[in-house]
Structures are given as C-alpha cells and as structure tokens.
Amino acid sequence: MDERWSWYRQMVRIRRFEERCVELYSATKIRGFLHLYIGEEAVAAGVMSRLRPDDAVVATYRDHGHAIAKGVSMRAVMAEMFGKVDGCSRGRGGSMHLFDVAHGLYGGNAIVGGGLPIAAGLAWADRRLGRDRVTACFFGEGAVAEGEFHETLNLASLWKLPVLFCCENNLYAMGTEIAHEQADLDLTVKASGYALPAWSVDGMDVEAVAAATERALASIRAGGGPVFLELKTFRFRAHSMYDPDRYRTSAEIEHWKERDPLLVLEERLRADAAAGDDVDARFAEVAAEVDAEVDDAVAFADAAELEPVEELTRWVHADDSSVPRQEVVR
Amino acid sequence: MDERWSWYRQMVRIRRFEERCVELYSATKIRGFLHLYIGEEAVAAGVMSRLRPDDAVVATYRDHGHAIAKGVSMRAVMAEMFGKVDGCSRGRGGSMHLFDVAHGLYGGNAIVGGGLPIAAGLAWADRRLGRDRVTACFFGEGAVAEGEFHETLNLASLWKLPVLFCCENNLYAMGTEIAHEQADLDLTVKASGYALPAWSVDGMDVEAVAAATERALASIRAGGGPVFLELKTFRFRAHSMYDPDRYRTSAEIEHWKERDPLLVLEERLRADAAAGDDVDARFAEVAAEVDAEVDDAVAFADAAELEPVEELTRWVHADDSSVPRQEVVR
Amino acid sequence: MTKTTYREALREGLREALAGDDRVVLLGEDVGAYGGSFAVSLGLLEQFGPDRVVDTPLSESAFVGAAIGAAMGGIRPIVEIMTVNFSLLALDQIVNNAATYLHMSGGQIHVPVVIRMTTGAGRQLAAQHSHSFEGIYAHIPGLRVVAPATLEDARGMLATALADPDPVVIFEHAALLPMAGDLADDAGAVDLDRAAVRREGTDVTLVSYGARLHTCLEAAEALAADGVSAEVVDLRTLRPLDLPTILASVARTHRAVVVDEAWRTGGIGAEVAAAICEHTFWDLDAPVARVATLEVPIPYAIHLEAAALPQAADVVAAARAVVA
Amino acid sequence: MTKTTYREALREGLREALAGDDRVVLLGEDVGAYGGSFAVSLGLLEQFGPDRVVDTPLSESAFVGAAIGAAMGGIRPIVEIMTVNFSLLALDQIVNNAATYLHMSGGQIHVPVVIRMTTGAGRQLAAQHSHSFEGIYAHIPGLRVVAPATLEDARGMLATALADPDPVVIFEHAALLPMAGDLADDAGAVDLDRAAVRREGTDVTLVSYGARLHTCLEAAEALAADGVSAEVVDLRTLRPLDLPTILASVARTHRAVVVDEAWRTGGIGAEVAAAICEHTFWDLDAPVARVATLEVPIPYAIHLEAAALPQAADVVAAARAVVA
Ligand SMILES: Cc1ncc(C[n+]2csc(CCOP(=O)(O)OP(=O)(O)O)c2C)c(N)n1
Ligand SMILES: Cc1ncc(C[n+]2csc(CCOP(=O)(O)OP(=O)(O)O)c2C)c(N)n1
Ligand SMILES: [Mg+2]
Ligand SMILES: [Mg+2]
Hints:
The complex is a heterotetramer, with two copies of chain A and two copies of chain C. By secondary structure, chain A is of the alpha/beta class. Chain A has one domain (2-327): Rossmann fold (3-Layer(aba) Sandwich). Chain A is built from eleven helices and eight strands. Chain A has helices spanning 2-26, 41-48, 64-69, 74-81, 115-128, 147-158, 187-192, 206-224, 250-257, 261-272, 279-303; strands at residues 56-60, 105-109, 135-140, 163-169, 172-173, 176-177, 198-202, 227-232. In chain A, the strands form two sheets. Chain A has a six-stranded parallel sheet, sandwiched between helices. The N and C termini of chain A lie far apart (61 Å). Chain C is an alpha/beta fold. Chain C folds into two domains: 2-183, Rossmann fold, CATH 3.40.50.970; 196-323, Rossmann fold. Chain C is 39% helix and 21% strand. Chain C contains 13 helices and 14 strands. Chain C is globular. At the C-D interface, helix 5, helix 7 and helix 11 of C face helix 5, helix 7 and helix 11 of D. The structure holds thiamine diphosphate (2 copies) and magnesium ion (2 copies). Residues 140-142, 170, 172-173 of chain B line the site of one magnesium ion.
C-alpha cells in the first residue's frame, strides 16, 4: 500500500512542521495567534488526498495542515508566519490567513463560520463557468452554532452546489465543550435537515477520511449537490499558544492520544510489512527527510526579506483601480 | 362549545379590523408598510387562547392579529396606525411595531428573524427571576432561513428556555415560495435537529392550533424546554399593500380560501347548533358587534392627538438617564 | 431624450449589465418572481431566466457572502440587499471578507462584487427600515461606495461599478425611485471618481448626496430668491471622497454647509466637514455647518418623521447663518 | 493603593458587579470554563457558578440578542463579545433592537444591557482581529459608548454602565490588558459623562481615548522636551461626546490634534475634529489635525502593523505642524 506511506509522510510533514512552529513561537520568530493542528492531521491529509490539485479549499485560522496538504510549500507557509514577503500571503496574513490561489487555497478565515458563504460562492461560480471543480470547506464543530453554517448549508443544498463541507469535530471550541455548544450532539442529524447527505467519519483514521471523501466527491461531481462530513478528531494541543488549556483533563487528552493518527497508521504500516522489511528504518527515513524539509523552510523564512513599508498601501484596491494609493508616511 | 364562539369572535375581530385597514390605507389614513394577516387568523386566535394574560409575545411586522388576540385594544392599535399619540406605541412604531407591555406584547419586529433572540432573552430572564411565564415567538417560514433562527433554536434548546416557537408557514416569503427558500420543506425535521419537540399543525383550524399550543405549553411549563410549532396557513392578501402579488395564481389562492379559518369554524358552529338555533343570526350579531368595535376604534384614532414634536427626542434615552435630551429644532 | 424614472434607470442599468456580459448575475431576496421589493428588477427574470436573476432565501450573510465568493471565483455578481437596515446582517462578510481579502492575501484574491441596496427614510417605514448607514461603509478601506442622486447616475453607475476590479457598494435612495425626468437615449456608464457641481454659486457651498441633493437644490432656489448664491455639490462617491472638487468649490465660496440624511454624530457629514476644515481652513470665512437627521430612531408618524429629517428650510437656515 | 493591571481591574469590576446584584449575569463565548479569551473573567465561574457566568455557543447574534431580551425582561446582563471584529455579527441586534426599542415603543421597553468587547490592534493578529469599529457604535442614537484607558476606568466604568437605564457598550483595548499600575483600594464606580484632562498644557490639545491615550501622553512628554506644552484629553465616553470639556481645552490652547486608532475616514476622529471646528472655529489658530490608522486592513507583519498604526512620533509631528 504505497498510498499509506504517502499519507504517512504528509501527516509527519504537518506534525513536524508544527512542532517546529511551537519552538519558533517561543523564540518569538512567529507571533500573533498560532493554532496548532497536531492530532488532527488525518483530516487534512485524508481529504486532500482525494481532491484534485485544482479543487478549491477554504480553511480557518487553524490552517497549516490544510495548506501543506494542499501542496503549498513549507517555505511559503513558514515565511508567512515569519511575516516575510516571500510568505504565501506576503507576510500580511500570518498563521491565520494562508492564501495560495495557485494551489487552490482560498485562505484561512479567522471569523468562525466566515468561510462558509465564500465556499458556496466559489462553487457557484464554478458551476456557472462550467468548471468541474469542488470546493472543500473546513470548519470546526463550534462553527456549527453560527448562523452562517445554517444559512450556507441551506443555500448550498437548495442550489445543489459542489461543496464538500468538512466539519472538524474536535469536541471543543476554545474552552467550550460541544455539550455546551450544541443542543444535539449528533451533527449529522442537524446537517440532514438541509436535505443533503451527512456522514460521520473517524477523523483519526486517514484511510476512513479518504474513503468518505472519495464517496462524497463522487456524489458531488455527479451533480448531487453538497455533502457534509463530520470528522471526529481531537486537538492534542491547546486552542492556541495563548491558551493554558484549563478546561480539559490530561486523562481526556491522553485517551485521545492513544488514537494519534500517526500511531494508527504506523501500526498498519507495520502490519503491511513483509518479513524482513525494516519499517522502523523507513519511519526514521521519513522523519529525517521531513526534518530536512522543515529545516530548509526555516532557513528560507529566516533569510527572506520583509515587504517594503512603501508597499503597505498596495492592494487595498487593485493595481488597476482608479482609486489613488495612499502614501504611507502620515 | 362556547369557546368556539369566542374563537370565532376573535377571528372576526381580526378580519374586520384588517378589512377596514385596507380602506383606511387607500384613504391614506394609514401609511408605511401594512402587512395583512387575513387568512391566518386561526393561528393568533388559537395560540393566544391558550396563553395566560401575563405570558409574553414577540411578533413580526405582520402583527395586528397577535396584538388584538393578545388583548391590546383595537383603539390603541388603530390609533397607532394613524400615527397618533394614543396609539399603543405612541404613533412611533406604526403597523409593524405594535408594543403593549401591559398586555405582554413585546413588539412587532420588522427585521426578519430579529425577534427570535429577543424572545429567548425574555424567557431566560423569566427563568432567572423565577417568573412562571412562557414567551411565544411568531415568525414566518421565510425567517427559518435566517441565521437567527438557527442560533436561537440551538440556544433555547441548550438552555431549556420557556419559549414557544410559532412558525407561521404561509408558503411564501414575499414573492419567494418555500421551495426556493428551504432545502427541506418539512420544517419540523429542521427544528428537530435542535433536540426539541416539533409538530406540524393545521393553521386553518383554530381548534387544532389551540390543542397543539396547549400540549406544547404543558411541556414547556413542566420545564421541558422550548417547543416548535409549524402552523400551516396561507395569506389571502398580498404580502403588503405595496405588493401586486404577481407570483401566485388565483387558483392557488382560491384553493386556500376554501379552507378559510372562518369558514372552517362556521361550519362547525352550524353543526353544533341545536334545532331551532338561528346560527346565521348569531353570526350577524357577532359581525355587528365587531363592526361597532371597529367603528369605535376608527373614530377614536381619528379624534386622537399627534404626539407633540417637542417629544420627538424623548426616550432616545430613558427619562432618568444623564444623557441630555437633544433639542428638536436643528 | 426619453422620459424615465430613477427606478427605470436603475432597471435599464441592470438590463444592460445582464445583456452585456454572461458572467453577470443578479441575486438577492425577491429580485426575481416578485420583481424586486421596490420593483427595480421587474421583468428581468422573464428576460434572463432564473440562472441569471436569482431569488435567494432570507439569509443576508450567506447570499452576500456567496456573491463575494462567486466574485472571487470569476463571475460578476450584482447582489441586492433590500435595504441598508438589513445589510447589518451581512456586514461581517462585506467588511471582514470583501474589503480585506485582496490586501490580506497579498494581492492574490480579487473581489469584483457589486452590492446594491436602498437607503433612506421618508416613507413612514419607522425605525427598522429608515436609517442611513452609508457612513459605516464609507469608513471601510477596500470598498468603493457610491450613491446615485440623478437619473444619469442611476442609469450609469452600475456599469462602472461592474467594471471596477474591487467591491463597490451602491446606495439607491428609496424615496428617489419615482423621481421622473429626461434621460439621454445613449445614457450609459458614468465615472465613479468625481463629485459633481450640480448648481453653480458664489456665496456658499452646499455639499450633499442621494435624496438630500434635491433638498439642497430646493434650498439653493429659495436662497437665490433671497440673494444668496449657493453652489451645490453632489458627492456621488462616498468613498473615496473626491476632495479636490469639494475643496475647489469651498475655496471659491469660502463657506460650506454639509447636508446628509444620516445622524449627525459620526455620519458622512462629519468626515466631509472635518476634511473641509483640514484643507481649506485659511480660506473659510465661517465654520462649516452640518445639517443632518436628528439623533432619534426614525419614527412612523409623518409629522415626527418629517421633523427628524433634514428639510430644505433647515438647509436654508444653516446657509443663512453661515453667510451672515 | 494596590498594584494591579487593567485586566485585573476589569475582573474586579465584574466580580463586584456579580457579587452586588443577583440580577447581574455575565455571558459570552468562553467567559466561563476558559476564563475569558483574554483571561479577564478568570475565576468568576468558580466563584459565581454556571448560572451567573454563562458560556454561550458561538452565536454572536443570538446571545447578544438574548442578552438584550433578558435586559428587557428585568435582569442585568453583561454580555462579552470577544472582539469588536466579531461584533459585526451581532450589530443588527444592537442597532435595530437594543438602540431602538425604547424610542420605538414609546417609552415602554427599557434595555439596560451592558455589552463589553475588546478592540484595537498591536498584537499581530492581522486583518480580521485588529480593527477599531467603535465609530460605528458611536454613530447610533440610543447607545452610550465608553472606552476605559486607565486602571480607574477599567475598574469603575462597568458599575456605572450597569446602573445606566440604557444600553451601554464598553470598549476594552486588548493591548492595554497587561498595563500595570496602582489603584486606590476603594476604587469603584466612575462617572461616564465626562472626558478627562489627563495632562495639562497650554500650546496644543491632544484628544484621544483607549490605547492611543498613552500614545498621546508619550508624545506630550516628547513635545515637552521640545518646549511644546501639550494638554491631553481622554474622551472616555465616545457617545455622547463630552464637548464642553474638549472645547474648553481647545479654547485655551487654540490648537488640536485628534488621535485615534480607527481609520481616518469617518472615524471618531472625524466627528471630534468636525465638532471642534464647528464650535471653536474663531478660537482656532490652526486647522485641527488628525492622526489615525492608515487606511489599510491591519497586516500581520510587525513592521507593517507598526507602520499602519498611529505612533507617538506621528502625534509629535502633527502637533509640531499645528503649533508651527
Ligand atoms: C465569529 C467569531 N467568534 C469568535 C471567535 C473567537 N474564536 C476563534 S476560534 C474559536 C473556537 C472555534 O471552535 P471550532 O469551530 O470548534 O474550531 P476549532 O478551533 O476547534 O478548530 C473562537 C471562539 C472568532 N474568531 N470568530
Ligand atoms: C432581515 C430582513 N430581510 C428582508 C426583509 C424584507 N422582508 C420583509 S417580510 C419578508 C418576507 C418574510 O417572509 P416570512 O418570514 O415567510 O413571513 P411572512 O411575511 O410570510 O409572514 C421580507 C423578505 C426584512 N424585513 N428583514
Ligand atoms: Mg472545535
Ligand atoms: Mg411566509
């Protein structure tokens, strides 16, 4: 199963990248809010493995995993978090706003629920322009309580838009557990109220995620309209680097760590191994390769330039707008 | 069945009142937007007949029926629409904003969906203050698409608030038929996604409405949390006096008129009648009494005073606020 | 020349836009079967079909957001919000997404969406249907905000807005819809960059936009009878302000009255007044006066509504005080 | 005197409010188990329990609307919106309901709700977490809008806001949360009606509020070294503006610089500048200057964010130009 190795590599890339981010945050190379995806890697890796390169993705502030799995280079992501002009958003967005349209990444949105209408709109444009493309929209279970969730699922279903709604249910919205957030804990019941297919998936199992995505995409591409996936997962780290994580017990976290998506996959890879295969050596090889990639990204970000301050007022309006650019000097 | 007669009178009161409003609108005594409830009277009459006088109501711009059935005097409602200071909102609100807190009417809200969070809040305050009160919140099926519907039903269900959600499904939101508004036409399915009881009721049958309300109130008062009622009804008139009603066929309207809630009830009253009872005479008697009441309301409204312009800046802030009142003269 | 109305001029602008470019779509609540809540889009569904003239559910945030996303995706949506009052429900999408994506993405994401809405009072619709929140939009970098006050602009601003690479918000004043007049047969796109001097004068500049332009023109007439020559400037574009045109006028007249229908505190009038003072301070012979709506929620009763809104008499009084 | 911080002062204000009146509740996203997104309400859930310190779902419109309804129903909710950026999602409830019900109902419905939110930039949170939309709120009749810039005000404004019969919006500046200093042991309610002169001076008045007050104080220090004596006025209340205090200062100094963190066009600074010009025109020796945030979405990169925000050096430069 070669694909297992490719998923594994992808997930290790996200994990190691973020572990490095933690260090770099402490070293104040990265600032602002930093939301880690550690523990949830199987979701991005699984979904993206079934999207086509030109399919679109709308993500949230917790978007490193999506960017990396969608093909954005680690260099561009790391430089972004360093606030450098070579970052994927020229250092203007930071961790929460990774954009790379060339790779189909229509940004991390930091307003909870704010990306959902955007995803519906992208999909609507695709249909009108006859582009055979699906937009995958990621959001947390906390976002399900927002009005935008409701309005967008209804609209997308009514208009049969090619959107894959990916709800990353990690059981907490910052410090609020899902039981304080949702009247009905089964999110697929709610999603079904919009007359669309809604399935619950083990988000710690990359293969289950990929399989569900494949089924959903087939239905969407066949014109069946949007599909809702609830991806049951857990974040191993605090909500953001600011969060002391007072609201969860270590027992709960440890319990979920037993289902670490990397462990789950490592076990399968071990089981796959033919007698004599040195799986551990391959794990170490992947780790070394990924570490080299992360090192390279950090070196690149470190060496990259800052955007000149004169450029600050560029792209408030398009370059070809008649609106005059402001001078930066006040 | 004395109550049948009392429902009947209530519905006739609303019907005749509004028929007079149409004339008065043409005569430019009433201005602004005027949304008629004609055809939907069984809903307000049925629900209100089971509410207690001190229960609270939050209504929409289509609120004459609710005000009258909740006990607000026709005089106060008519004077409001005439823009007079003796109106229930001192002429400041007009048809869309009837307020009468003494009768538990917390206003017609003219932002579609805007009243739902308010109703939840009233109910929350009641619970915190230990007041045994239910808040009935009315809105159309169009409002079900708004984010406020979703957010409020979730919140009310989570917090088990004493709210009766009354969705007046008249199949159209202005000119938009429900099939263009809702991905799933069965609104109780959607409402059930919030883990609350949700029933569909024949909104043309006042007794069915009253019975469902009674059952719902029992559950709410017992601490069971909110209940959602879908009241299937139809408006016989255009959306508002501005609306040429281009989007419905007369066949559809005629079809629904066969189930005119007044006709439905008249038939039962005829069936109730003992031999020798002159039911028609009683109908005529009700009509005459109601017409007299409407005449009186019109005369009252006509004779009433306008609010002095000097008062215009009163109640921007409370009378005991330290914020100075503005002068009216600019 | 053809006799037409502001409403029809808006409609012809929409018709032309839909006819001229397949990527253009019109969406919003009741733009289709109903014909538009103010009958602006009447007949367009019949002409262009339900794929181009799209009735949306009552979901301001989602359908405005979807229009923003669709613009990002390469089509040219014209999205109608019935009134600016309801637009508060979509404000997050407009401010946090439409206005920021281009800058925040480092120039990658263009959002050529056109957002139309009615604004204004004067029809006894009371406190949830009568307010003038254009100032909120004019505060937001990344947006272009315009307000047609004439038939030409009602007819022509849409085409220019659609050609603009960035989000444009168009405020149509509901009380102007029945305004009738003549329009050139070849009327079409108009620029969005410049304010317009609608009447020349020498003693005082009246600065306004939308329905209150006509209040100012009425006031100027009354002032003329009195020997005061008022110049009337129509802002046309509320963001960015065309300061050169405004300041040139004030440099000539040395006096200004700013008139708008928003509440005075923090309305567009505040910005215009502040900018005039900032730039032409030494040319001014009197402080800039403001005439605005009284700071109350607009009431239903006609005499109260009228008292709340800026009337020609108020403008005349303010202008007289300024030239005194 | 006790050593404390702005954050702790806010917390003590909340604690006192909850302890003093059973009708008071605190609600919002993560005010409870998490301790408040900025740790302001840390420990209050433990002290007052989940009926008084209430975690809400992510539903800004519904929980702010519910707080408004609850205030109508007789309890005294303090509702926290994490940041003003997200408050756009609740703006309809605040503007169309909280601010209008009393007037529109003819005096029947009182809405004594307190709405707290953080505002401001300076922490590299980029374009969806850093904006200063206070001006939108200050435009709305029916609201009272305040912004504590000092420990005393952080500690005391809440009590006064709760005692107010009308809706009050409190803007807490996120960058001030760690600000440390001494607070009187008996610190408590402060008035909400008056602006405060935070430093006296004779040559120029610097008008500001929130975090930018401290920028002005820093600038005043630098100016003093240069022989320019700057008076610094802290607005404190953004609606209604305390014009008498502002105007009295400008009448003394004859020059003013208005400093705020919103975008210049149509921000609160515009209103303050316009009002000063209107009322003290003949006393002014120079046009009122404005120092504001550059009109861009706030970027993440630290050098760009710093360049976008008004800094003490900008205030100094503006003040020098005004007194020149
Ligand atoms: C509209 C809005 N409200 C609040 C916030 C603050 N906030 C950021 S993330 C978050 C929790 C979101 O939880 P969830 O949707 O479950 O996503 P997760 O962080 O768990 O991935 C909150 C409350 C915000 N960014 N936007
Ligand atoms: C937020 C908002 N959007 C749009 C409108 C304009 N509008 C008023 S009533 C209405 C239709 C509402 O339909 P429904 O909820 O079904 O109630 P009905 O009028 O049928 O009773 C619309 C679109 C509004 N008042 N508020
Ligand atoms: Mg979550
Ligand atoms: Mg309806």
